[in-house]
Amino acid sequence: MRDGSDTSSDHEAVPERPGRGEFVVLIALMISIVAMAIDAMLPALGQIGEDMGVAGGNRQQLVVTFLFLGLALSQIVFGPLSDSFGRKPVIYAGFIIFMIGCVMSIVATSFWVMIAGRLLQGIGAAGPRIVTLALVRDRFAGREMARLMSLVMTVFILIPVFAPIIGQGIMIVTHWRGIFVMFLVLSAIAFVWFWARQPETLAPEKRSKLSAGRIARAFRETLTNRTALGYTMTAGLIFGAFVGYLVSAQQIFQVTFGVGEAFPLYFALSAGALGFASITNARLVMRFGMRPLTGTALAAASLLSIVFLVVVVLADNHPSLWATMVYIVMTFFFVGFVFGNFNALAMEPLGHIAGSASSVIGSVTMFISLALGTLIGQLYDGTVLPLVAGFAILATVSFAVMTWVEGTLPWNAQD
Question: pTM score, two decimals?
Answer without folding.
Answer: 0.82
